Amino acid sequence: MKEFKCGQLVPGCNWETHAEDEAEVVRRASDHLRSAHGETHIRGNMVEEIKKRVHERAA
Fold first, then answer.
1. Residue 42 contacts by C-beta under 8 Å, 6 or more apart in sequence?
2. Coil, strand or helix: which one is 28?
3. Facing residues of 3 across strands?
4. Once rounded to an integer, what is the mean pLDDT over residues 13-28?
5. Tens digit of each residue's pLDDT (9 = 90 or more) over 30-59
6. CB-based contact 46:29 (threshold 8 Å)
7. Residue 11, SS3 per DSSP
8. Half-sphere exposure of residue 32, counting CA atoms within 13 Å on the CB side?
9. pLDDT score, position 51
10. Bridge partners of 18?
11. CA of 52: how far to CAs of 14, 26, 49, in Å?
12. What is the mean pLDDT of residues 20-36?
């Protein structure tokens, strides 16, 4: 199970998500950045920053 915690990218944000694969985590994180942080366009470098912070969820 993969996990992403937004606070690792946007300090102070407590939102997190998890899914079976990285692509779904990145999709959810991108949606969150649009809705919660006002990002209108998720650039390639932002996707890379999200991917750097996706890790295996602790059991």
1. 30, 33, 34
2. helix
3. 18, 55
4. 97
5. 999 999 999 999 999 999 999 999 999 887
6. no
7. coil
8. 21
9. 97
10. 3
11. 18, 10, 5
12. 97
